[in-house]
Backbone:
């Protein structure tokens, strides 16, 4: 369990908090590129790390992310006119560029130089991989992390976004926990195939998870975060390994069989009690096949169907994720909940907006969760006490890795045997 003080330290993300300062050292995904579909499109509201902001795409296609409140009298720039290379406040006509520069101040005398003395708070934005990324930390901004899915053609990836009503940490901890897969996501019918548990016809990998539901965990620190190995018995001379990547500050890659499409999740805090989840499925070497996209859009796997305007999942806490108790009683589904992501949402949101980690009883299967918390706490301490910016934040190339699920001989060290499978090639 965590102390109350450490739990507060890890889950409070607003301006002026230690975890907020750590997260601001990293680029944060905050919107789909399609939310600002073209030059001079409608502005959108953004709440990110406890700050209320407005995003817009200017006449040249550049994306601006400005404080919500105009620096003149505090009117919301969400209602601004997006025109001629800037966002114009409708209250008095002040106009700001994507970088926060005041471009026009029409209610001031023409000879006034006041315009040169005013800037809106603005944050750098990158449009990469179908996602808009923001950097809210001290200048200069580091390079965007070189995640493989941001470097492949659009046809090779599928990106989705959801709003989740709990602390970002509850999602991160769920992603690094490989033991729950044998329970929460277990199904005894064809839904298992559609949900992405079974990658290929005839694959025996899911059988290993069903046969051995108590994996042994191993954790190795890396230059991007941590590599987590969950070992299950396979055959008499082999082990089945699910190798999960935790990438600072809140990105994860869950295991996929070698050669299958890969998956990524980014957990971006909206504030202390809400987050945005960005899930990406990609193949590094080819476009996603029609049947693979159809499998994703069956919403039985790690992507979830959302309201196109709010990004709130259609199966959510307000309708109990449409749990089917008769299906659960039949033992065809462990939960009676339709999709993998909804099952995750049910347990993560069900902990409350911020989980009380002081009441936990953690066992050996929780090694990855414990290690993830420790990695974050160490980074928060180093930054707040000694001013040490995390190594990962300034080394974009360190993120060129993959996760993997594979069978290895028992005589082979897991990190050595899986080394080639874990390297990104893009």
Residues:
């Amino acid at each position: 369990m965590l102390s109350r003080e450490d739990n507060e330290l890890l889950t409070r993300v607003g301006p002026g908090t230690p975890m907020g300062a750590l997260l601001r050292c990293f680029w944060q995904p905050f919107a789909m590129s399609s939310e600002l579909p073209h030059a001079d499109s409608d502005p959108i509201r953004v709440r990110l790390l406890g700050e209320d902001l407005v995003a817009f795409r200017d006449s040249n296609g550049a994306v601006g992310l400005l404080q919500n409140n105009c620096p003149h009298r505090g009117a919301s720039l969400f209602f601004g006119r997006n025109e001629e290379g800037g966002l114009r406040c409708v209250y008095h006509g002040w106009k700001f560029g994507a970088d926060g520069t005041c471009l026009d101040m029409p209610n001031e005398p023409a000879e006034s130089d006041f315009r040169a003395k005013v800037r809106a708070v603005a944050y750098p934005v990158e449009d990469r991989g179908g996602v808009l990324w923001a950097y809210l930390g001290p200048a200069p901004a580091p390079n965007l992390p070189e995640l493989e899915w941001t470097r492949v053609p659009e046809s090779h990836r599928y990106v989705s976004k959801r709003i989740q009503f709990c602390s970002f940490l509850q999602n991160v901890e769920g992603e690094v926990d490989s033991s729950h897969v044998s329970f929460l996501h277990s199904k005894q019918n064809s839904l298992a195939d559609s949900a992405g548990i079974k990658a290929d016809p005839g694959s025996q990998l899911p059988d290993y998870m069903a046969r051995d539901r108590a994996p042994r965990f191993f954790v190795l620190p890396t230059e991007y975060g941590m590599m987590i190995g969950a070992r299950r018995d396979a055959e008499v001379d082999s082990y089945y390994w699910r190798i999960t990547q935790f990438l600072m500050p809140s990105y994860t890659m869950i295991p996929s069989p070698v050669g299958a499409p890969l998956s990524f999740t980014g957990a971006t805090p909206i504030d202390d009690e809400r987050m945005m989840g960005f899930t990406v499925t990609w193949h590094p070497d080819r476009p996603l096949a029609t049947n693979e996209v159809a499998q994703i859009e069956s919403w039985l796997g790690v992507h979830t169907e959302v309201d196109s305007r709010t990004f709130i999942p259609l199966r959510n806490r307000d309708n109990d994720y449409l749990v089917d108790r008769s299906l659960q009683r039949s033992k065809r589904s462990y939960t009676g909940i339709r999709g993998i992501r909804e099952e995750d949402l049910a347990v993560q949101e069900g902990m409350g907006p911020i989980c009380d980690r002081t009441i936990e009883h953690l066992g050996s299967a929780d090694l990855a969760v414990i290690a993830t918390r420790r990695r974050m706490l160490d980074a928060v301490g180093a930054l707040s006490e000694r001013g040490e910016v995390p190594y990962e934040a300034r080394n974009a190339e360190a993120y060129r890795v993959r996760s993997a699920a594979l069978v290895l001989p028992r005589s082979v060290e897991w990190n050595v045997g899986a080394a080639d499978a874990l390297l990104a090639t893009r």
User: Anything to note?
Assistant: The CA atoms of residues 10 and 373 lie 8 Å apart.
